[in-house]
């Protein structure tokens, strides 16, 4: 533990994370959830606007996604839980209270492990609650505009025990939590868009002494800010505690982070803390979650990233696929759009599934390189994210087989791949290759052999005399220029390694 | 042509209502679909949302409010072909027992025009509209007696069904866990007729009880009915809860007592078995009720801030605009009447961190004890709790020794004079209003079906021949023997609404007898 001390101070950090549930409708109303670019006040109904006579109706899809989060975080799910009203008067809450789970959250006692944090983080509880509206205050005109698009969206509040000791651990937790929640389809965890926000509790104490007074830094919406806020807070609290005489105490406060000044600031002290008058919601009663239902959710859940990673490693390491390759592949999935309502019957395969299908009966290392370097490389050159939809598994398989059976060179295959991405067509891969005249002469003209290749190589040496001289002088790198010339002349129809060998013979 | 006729109907209703103030708005051209309720004209309490007419809840806060949708009960009635004639006056947001706390002014009891008496509340307009013959039936809401009490004062039948049978979607909340939509009409049969069309499971109301429980309750009710239905009441066990005869009743309203005694004698002579029972927690029910109702009320009414809809009172120039809650305070201080403000303050206190355990939680515990009391005396099990896994929450009923229904007076007095209760000019003792609720709130806390049927009062009887079974109170110069109506309440186990209504019909027949 001592390795984490900051000049003899132990830093204790706990995190409360709010994530928006990726559901198509809100938690208690059938109004659609909104995106940042939706017109203000275009996504709400009478319930969201707190009209009299409206009543909440729990969205089962939200509940199932919440259960996925609980299972992914290894929580025990309470068979019976309930909803409470948290009262306060503010323009972002038109009904005057937020429905949350104050007295009896649906999931407790979880555990989060990440190899990069180095120790398991205990999850205290997860509660289901409503998001607020957005109010935009104009200081000059002293007016506020209220946008109800976000009000009532399902939120999960995930509360850890104070198990972190450094700012980096805290940030790593937020990062991996984001990855986890995205993988199981609970949330898109987009901090910039506000679908994931963190409140961080920080306190300092001397090892062996009781915990110090904690300060809570509210609504941190980027990993960078989180690290900065915690580090600033450590220094601020240290300065108070190390004041000569050692009589000063850190006052209990709620603070915010100012990204312009790169520091935290006081929002309110303990004395100003509002009394939320929590009351069990008389409309929603007891929520009963049966073992059977929880099991059904568990069965339908996509695999957790950690499980996928270790399975891929176990399966493909022997084929030469390394950890790095797998991380790249998994990151392709991690940045995919998270579908709504936990849908998994999505027609498009993820990168991992695409890889595994393509590598059936083929060399996994070879397949992976083609997916990561060529397919993704060309897609990113076209400004497109990875998708398995451009080249279906079967097409990709034929393309790869044409290479391994030497019917097509790598260079030709790249050209063909590009063609298929830029001008999608229903034609078969072989037909396309034929149309573009990309199939190896070896295939079309069986007579074409090393003699033909030797002729072309000789022509290359004649065409590029200075390069040939440089190679003869020992500059092997220039060999690529000759090969490039041959490729252009033959439209890539030669086998590169064979050409290389012949050129080498001719030049020595 | 039709339209002129229709608005003439509205105008005629308006003029007939002028001396009662039962209505606050009228349907210009009531459209009806073909259906089983074609012949029935129905008025709606003004806290039930309608898209066609304003929904004011008797409050300045919603004086010009028009709901974007029809409540589920309104939709069901329209589908059944009922003619919705207008909206009725009520105490502001249902808070009150005399219908004097309304922005539209008090409702005048139409029973007799020789004195200006209160109609009772909070569904006073609905009771008065039925009593005055302005409509066949009316919907009211009952949170702690708001249907049964005005029904008793106005001399009509008022029915609060089991909580969870009738949808609350579109009914403006006062206290979500208690609010119950019910029916008022001239006779039990008409109540029954309207009730069967609004007694439907509604997925828009999370407190609407599922079909399985409804059916279980109905089966148990019919089993009981089959035991005694016919010429004789042999097999019907009627409980008389001793706690429902408080000192306020025995000291001032001997005519109520004698009427009850007379009724019981008649029931016994028909073969019913009259059993004295005890519901010992009754004395705590009233306090628990006011804590829970006020706490929920303070919560349910926090949505009225003048921002999205309804009244908005802008702060005066130079006012501190940085605090949102202080801006809301202007609207809320002016938009809510005295009684509502009082209950909001009480409820807010009951929910504050320091008071929560001693008030709100304690009241919830009392509520459970009150429920247990009922479960202990009824022969029919409470189907809502009988399947619960936790054994400690299950109360062993008395089985065959239990009673089918309870019977007790609906109120402790007849309708008071409006002059004596209006608090316009001077401070008056409002405790009486609350004590009045003592007979009605236990059924509300327990969500039980409760029906108030007009009783034949002693003064309206022809002098009885000596030697009859019931005893007339000596010294007949009782000041409450005023000839104004009083109701008798029939209360049953949860879900046995059919049983309660059947017993109500018997009582009704005896009273007309």
Automatic annotation (TrEMBL), chain A:
Hydrolase among keywords: no
InterPro entries cross-referenced by the UniProt entry: Asn/Gln-tRNA_amidoTrfase_suB/E, Asn/Gln-tRNA_Trfase_suB/E_cat, Asn/Gln_amidotransferase, Asn/Gln_tRNA_amidoTrase-B-like, GatB, GatB_Yqey_C_2, Gln-tRNA_amidoTrfase_suB_CS, Gln_synth/guanido_kin_cat_dom
Keywords carried by this UniProt record: ATP-binding, Ligase, Mitochondrion, Nucleotide-binding, Protein biosynthesis
Domain Asn/Gln amidotransferase: 353-507
GO biological process: glutaminyl-tRNAGln biosynthesis via transamidation; mitochondrial translation
A matching Pfam family: GatB_Yqey
GO cellular component, one term: mitochondrion
Top-rank taxon, per record: Eukaryota
Localization terms from the record: Mitochondrion
Listed PROSITE patterns: GATB (PS01234)
EC primary class: ligase
GO molecular function annotations of the record: ATP binding; glutaminyl-tRNA synthase (glutamine-hydrolyzing) activity
Residues forming coiled coils: none
Annotated catalysed reactions: L-glutamyl-tRNA(Gln) + L-glutamine + ATP + H2O = L-glutaminyl-tRNA(Gln) + L-glutamate + ADP + phosphate + H(+)
Keyword Metal-binding: no
EC number: 6.3.5.-
Quaternary structure note: Subunit of the heterotrimeric GatCAB amidotransferase (AdT) complex, composed of A, B and C subunits.
Task of the protein: Allows the formation of correctly charged Gln-tRNA(Gln) through the transamidation of misacylated Glu-tRNA(Gln) in the mitochondria. The reaction takes place in the presence of glutamine and ATP through an activated gamma-phospho-Glu-tRNA(Gln).
Stated family: Belongs to the GatB/GatE family. GatB subfamily.
Protein name: Glutamyl-tRNA(Gln) amidotransferase subunit B, mitochondrial
Organism: Lentinula aciculospora
Automatic annotation (TrEMBL), chain B:
EC number: 6.3.5.7
Entry keyword Protein biosynthesis: yes
InterPro entries: Amidase, Amidase_CS, Amidase_dom, AS_sf, GatA
Nucleotide-binding recorded as keyword: yes
Cited Pfam families: Amidase
Entry's localization field: Mitochondrion
UniProt cross-references to SUPFAM superfamilies, sorted A to Z: Amidase signature (AS) enzymes
Gene Ontology BP term (one): mitochondrial translation
GO molecular function, one term: glutaminyl-tRNA synthase (glutamine-hydrolyzing) activity
Family according to the record: Belongs to the amidase family. GatA subfamily.
Protein name per the record: Glutamyl-tRNA(Gln) amidotransferase subunit A, mitochondrial
Natural source organism: Lentinula aciculospora
């Amino acid at each position: 533990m001592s390795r984490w001390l900051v000049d003899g101070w132990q830093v204790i950090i706990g995190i409360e994370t709010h994530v928006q549930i990726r559901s198509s409708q809100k938690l208690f109303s059938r109004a659609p959830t909104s995106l940042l670019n939706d017109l203000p006040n275009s996504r709400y109904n009478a319930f969201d606007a707190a009209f009299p006579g409206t009543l909440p109706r729990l969205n089962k899809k939200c509940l199932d996604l919440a259960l996925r989060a609980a299972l992914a975080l290894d929580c025990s799910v309470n068979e019976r839980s309930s909803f409470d009203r948290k009262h306060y008067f503010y323009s972002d809450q038109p009904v005057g209270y937020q429905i949350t789970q104050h007295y009896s959250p649906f999931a407790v006692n979880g555990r989060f492990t990440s190899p990069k944090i180095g120790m398991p983080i205990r999850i205290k509880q997860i509660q289901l609650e409503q998001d607020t509206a957005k109010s935009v205050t104009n200081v000059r005109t002293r007016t506020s505009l209220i946008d109800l698009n976000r009000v009532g969206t399902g939120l999960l509040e995930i509360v850890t025990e104070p198990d972190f000791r450094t700012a980096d651990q805290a940030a790593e937790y937020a990062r991996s939590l984001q990855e986890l929640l995205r993988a199981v389809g609970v949330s898109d965890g987009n901090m910039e868009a506000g679908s994931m926000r963190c409140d961080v509790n920080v306190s300092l104490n001397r090892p062996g002494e009781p915990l110090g007074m904690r300060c809570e830094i509210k609504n941190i919406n980027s990993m960078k800010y989180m690290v900065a806020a915690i580090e600033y807070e450590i220094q601020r609290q240290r300065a108070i505690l190390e004041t000569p005489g050692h009589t000063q105490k850190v006052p209990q406060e709620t603070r915010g982070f100012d990204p312009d000044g790169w520091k935290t600031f006081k929002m309110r002290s303990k004395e100003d803390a509002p009394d939320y008058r929590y009351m069990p919601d008389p409309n929603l009663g007891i929520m009963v979650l049966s073992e059977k239902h929880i099991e059904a959710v568990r069965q339908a859940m996509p695999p957790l990233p950690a499980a996928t990673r270790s399975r891929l490693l176990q399966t493909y390491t022997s084929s030469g696929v390394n950890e790095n390759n797998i991380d790249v592949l998994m990151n392709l999935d991690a940045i995919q759009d998270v579908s709504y309502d936990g849908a998994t019957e999505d027609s498009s395969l993820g990168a991992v599934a695409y890889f595994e299908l393509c590598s059936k009966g083929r060399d996994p290392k070879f397949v992976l390189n083609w997916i990561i370097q060529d397919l993704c490389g060309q897609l990113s050159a076209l400004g497109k994210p990875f998708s398995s939809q451009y080249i279906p598994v079967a097409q990709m398989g034929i393309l790869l087989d044409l290479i391994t059976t030497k019917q097509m060179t790598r260079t030709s295959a790249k050209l063909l791949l590009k063609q298929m991405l830029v001008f999608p067509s229903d034609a078969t891969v072989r037909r396309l290759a034929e149309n573009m005249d990309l199939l190896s002469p070896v295939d079309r003209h069986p007579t074409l052999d090393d003699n033909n290749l030797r002729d072309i190589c000789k022509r290359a040496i004649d065409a590029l005399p200075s390069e040939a001289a440089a190679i003869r002088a020992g500059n092997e790198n220039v060999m690529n220029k000759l090969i490039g010339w041959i490729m252009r002349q033959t439209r890539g129809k030669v086998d590169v390694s064979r050409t290389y060998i012949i050129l080498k013979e001719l030049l020595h | 042509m039709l339209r002129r006729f229709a608005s003439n109907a509205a105008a005629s209703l308006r003029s007939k209502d002028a001396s009662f103030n039962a209505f606050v708005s009228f349907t210009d051209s009531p459209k009806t679909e073909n259906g089983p309720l074609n012949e029935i004209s129905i008025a709606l309490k003004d806290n039930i949302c309608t898209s066609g007419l304003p929904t004011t809840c008797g409050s300045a806060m919603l004086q010009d409010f028009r709901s974007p949708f029809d409540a589920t009960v309104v939709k069901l009635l329209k589908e059944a072909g009922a003619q919705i004639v207008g909206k009725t006056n009520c105490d502001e947001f249902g808070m009150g027992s005399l219908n004097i706390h309304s922005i539209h002014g008090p409702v005048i009891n139409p029973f007799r025009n020789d004195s200006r008496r209160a109609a009772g509340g909070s569904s006073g307009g609905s009771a008065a509209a039925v009593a005055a013959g302005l409509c066949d039936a009316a919907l009211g809401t009952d949170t702690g007696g708001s249907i049964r009490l005005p029904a008793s004062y106005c001399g009509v039948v008022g029915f609060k069904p089991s909580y969870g049978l009738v949808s609350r979607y579109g009914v403006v909340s006062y206290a979500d866990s208690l609010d119950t939509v019910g029916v008022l009409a001239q006779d039990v049969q008409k109540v029954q007729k309207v009730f069967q069309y609004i007694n439907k499971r509604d997925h828009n109301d999370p407190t609407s009880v599922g079909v399985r429980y409804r059916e279980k309750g109905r089966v148990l009710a019919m089993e009981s009915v089959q035991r005694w239905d016919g010429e004789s009441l042999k097999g019907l066990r009627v409980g008389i809860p001793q706690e429902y005869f408080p000192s306020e009743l025995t000291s001032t309203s001997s005519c109520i007592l004698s009427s009850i005694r007379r009724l019981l004698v008649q029931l016994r002579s028909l073969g019913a078995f009259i059993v004295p029972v005890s519901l010992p927690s009754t004395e705590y029910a009233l306090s628990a009720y006011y804590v829970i109702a006020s706490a929920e009320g303070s919560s349910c009414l926090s949505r009225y801030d003048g921002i999205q809809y309804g009244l908005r009172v802008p702060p005066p120039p130079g006012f501190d605009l940085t605090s949102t809650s202080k801006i809301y305070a202007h609207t809320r201080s002016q938009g809510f009447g005295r009684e509502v403000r009082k209950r909001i303050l009480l409820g807010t206190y009951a929910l504050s961190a320091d008071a929560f355990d001693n008030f709100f939680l304690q009241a919830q515990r009392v509520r459970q004890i009150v429920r247990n009391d009922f479960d202990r005396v009824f022969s029919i099990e409470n189907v809502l709790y009988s399947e619960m896994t936790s054994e400690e929450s299950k109360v062993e009923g008395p089985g065959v020794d239990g009673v089918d229904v309870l019977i007790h007076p609906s109120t402790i007095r007849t309708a008071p004079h409006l002059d004596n209760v209006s608090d316009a000019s001077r401070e008056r003792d409002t405790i009486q209003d609350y004590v009045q609720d003592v007979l009605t709130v236990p059924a509300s806390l327990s969500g039980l079906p409760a029906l108030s049927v007009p009783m034949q009062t002693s003064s309206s009887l022809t002098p009885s021949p000596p030697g009859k079974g019931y005893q007339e109170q000596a010294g007949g110069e009782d000041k409450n023997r005023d000839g104004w109506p009083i109701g008798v309440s029939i209360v049953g186990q949860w879900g046995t609404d059919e049983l309660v209504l059947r017993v109500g019909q018997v009582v009704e027949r005896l009273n007309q007898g």
